Amino acid sequence: MIIEHAVPADQAADLVRQLYRAFLAREPSDDEVAVHSGNLWNDGAMAAVSGIVYSPEALAVRAQAAEPPRPSLPEGMLAIGRTDVAEVVAHALEAARHDAPSAYEVELRVDDVERGTALAVVLRDALQPLQPAEDSVEDEASIDRTIEIMYRLALGRMPGPADLENWRGAVGNGGRLSNVVFGIGESAEAKLIRGALDVVPGTKVQLAFEIVLGRGAAAAEVDHFRGMVDKQGLDISPLVWQLFGDEARKRLLPPQHANDPHLAYVFGSRGAVNIADWRTSKALPGIKKNHDVLGADSAIRLRPTEDCVVSIITSLYRGGAFIRSFLENMTSQTIFRTHCELIIIDANSPEGEQAIIEEFCRDYPNIIYKRMDARVSIYEAWNIGVGLARGRYLTNANVDDIRRTDSFEIQAAVLDSLDFVDVTYQDVLYSFEPRMPFDEIAKRDFCSDLPVVSRYNLMEFNSPHNAPMWRAALHRDVGLFNQSLQSAADFEFWLRCLVAGKIFYKVNEAHAAYFVNPDGMSTRPDTRGAIEAYAVSRELYRKIVSPMLVISDDEFLARVDEIDAAPLRKGRRYDIVQSALLALGTRREGAVA
Question: In the chain, fewer beta carbons within 10 Å around the N or the C end?
Answer without folding.
Answer: C
